[in-house]
Design goal:
The protein is mainly α and about 100 residues long. The chain has helices at about 5-20, 25-30, 35-40, 50-60, 65, 75-85, 90-104. The model has no long low-confidence stretch (mean pLDDT about 90).
Length: about 100
């Protein structure tokens, strides 16, 4: 069995947090850990526990499979995340997104 790429997992968490404009302090306070623990996870100084990963995903409104997407051989994680985001879009936004996808 191959080891998980905790460096990439930390990068995915950091990227999602920054995209949402959230600080490490905010995330740490929401899941009940020290700021240094979030920093250590994001910088691959510790391996994120399953409990912490689920809590982080809940705060960031992400699915665990999205954070672990590089660990999968199938594109299901990204597909599911796209569908999740689309669910909150208006019909007009969905039309725009469809046009963008067709252009790509």
């Amino acid at each position: 069995m191959q080891e998980l790429n905790f460096q990439q997992i930390g990068k995915n968490i950091r990227s999602a947090r920054l995209r949402q404009g959230l600080t490490q302090e905010y995330l740490a306070s929401r899941i009940g850990v020290n700021v240094s623990h979030i920093s250590n996870i994001e910088n691959n100084r510790v391996k994120v526990s399953l409990t912490a990963l689920v809590a982080i995903c809940n705060v960031l409104n992400l699915t665990v499979d999205y954070v672990l997407k590089q660990e999968y051989t199938a594109a299901d994680a990204i597909d599911n995340e796209i569908l999740k985001e689309l669910a909150s879009c208006s019909p007009e936004e969905k039309e725009k997104i469809l046009k963008i996808i067709q252009i790509l």
